[in-house]
Amino acid sequence: MATKTYAGQSVEVNDEGYMVNASEWTKEIAAEMAKEEGIDLTDKHYEVLEFLRNANEKGETLTIRRVGKSGITDIKGLYQLFPGGPLKFSSKFAGIPKPASCV
Amino acid sequence: MATNNETPLKKVCIICAKGTIEDVYATLVMANGAVMEGIETKVFFTFFGLDGITKKQMGKIKTATVGNPAMRAPGGLPFPTILGMLPGVEAGVSAMMKSQMYKLDIPPVDEFLEMITAGGGEIFACKLAMDMFKLEKSDLHEEVKDVLTIGDFYGKCGGENTQIIFT
Q1: Nearest CB neighbour to B119, from listed A79, A88, A102
Q2: What is the ipTM of this complex?
Q3: What CATH number is given to the structural domain containing B33?
Q4: Is B103 within a domain?
């Protein structure tokens, strides 16, 4: 466990940089996290993040396929939004745990 | 103790030579998993593995119920090989395997191929096996990029931190 400062707020994160408390999340934190990976968040990104946060709250198992069927974007679009990590980066920026799924 | 001297995997080249549910899906899960991690991914289907990318066969792949000692009845009860020979058993077992996978959000084969290519993964078919089975490129799913000799496939497997995996 470690603490990092995003957007002037200290945030508890795990070894892989995922936030420990999803409730601490703000849009500004997400934007700074994304910048570390070289991604500028747009409205579309935030729609995906909101979707992930809602699904996580309901205890749903998150897969790339599930997000692809969300109506926000398809799988190809998801790869374009979060290059190199459509599910792991989006989950990280959404402040939720890294999904424990293989798809 | 983990050290940080390791350099991350950059490319995986996966070869699938068998056409059962578990062979084809192991290939697809590994390929898709690699693409999702940002790893460059190439998949080569050969011999009976071609069933996984042949339009007519890809929806009908099965698990072998004969000669598969790890297969047990639900609840872990033994499943005598002789039962596996009965008509309909292979189909029933295969349907059960697929339904268990779908519950985990693992898609049918054609959709899985589309997921892999959506992330930039590339799918190839083996020329020799295509010739053997009298298949044409038009018999294969649209997501198959090309029909290659093994030499051509190796030509795509170069570079540092590349692994070739044979399922």
Answers
A1: A79
A2: 0.92
A3: 3.40.1260.10
A4: yes
Q: In what order do the strands lie in the sheet with B11-16?
A: B144-148, B122-126, B40-45, B11-16, B162-166
Tokens (6 digits) for B49: 């593995």
Does residue B33 lie in a domain region?
yes
Rounded distance, CA A67 to CA A72, Å?
8
Q: By residue range, what is the domain housing residue B45?
A: 11-63+79-166
* pTM (predicted TM-score): 0.94
Distance CA A76, CA A63 (A): 14
Active site residues of A: 102
User: How many domains, chain B?
Assistant: 1
**Are the C-beta atoms of B144 and B154 separated by less than 8 Å?**
no
Residue B90 lies in a domain: yes
Would residue B3 count as lying in a domain?
Answer: no
Q: Which two tokens stand for residue B8?
A: 């991350």
Residue closest to B24 by CA, chosen among B56, B47, B1: B47
Contact between B37 and A85 using a beta-carbon 8 Å cutoff: yes
Structure tokens at B35: 């693409």
A22-74 pLDDT, tens digit per residue, is 999 999 999 999 999 999 999 999 999 999 999 999 999 899 999 999 999 99
3-class state of residue B41 by DSSP? strand
Residue of B nearest to A68 (CA): B115
